[in-house]
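Example 113, ligand guanosine-5'-monophosphate.
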Amino acid sequence: MTIFHAIIDRKIPADIVYEDERLIAFRDIAPQAPVHVLFVPKQDFATLNDVPEDAAIVIGRLATAAARYAKAQGFAESGYRIVMNCNGDGGQTVFQIHLHLLGGAPLGHFGTP
Ligand code: 5GP
């Protein structure tokens, strides 16, 4: 049970921007860009390492939901970034897989200070 499961179960509040039977999307509590939304599947996987190939569609749905959201918000054409962190070296802090959508301003080239 992670904090994201508590959000899915409405045990703690979040600013939910999208939900369907398979995934939920809500604003990150500590945004790193003007738009910073987390896309979380309702199926449990602690890390990307735990997603078998026959469940790859779970990741695909997160990515396409993020793109749809960017289009609806009007910044798909100007651009955005999606990120998945994995385990300690990747900076993962919540162990239910999730995809970060960052956008709403020029983000610079990945890794450029
Ligand atoms: P990770 O570091 O695991 O890739 O990303 C976890 C993200 O969850 C972080 O960006 C963090 O700010 C966000 N986060 C942690 N706790 C909460 C919470 O209670 N509510 C929301 N909305 N975001 C959270």
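Summary: The chain has one domain: 3-103.
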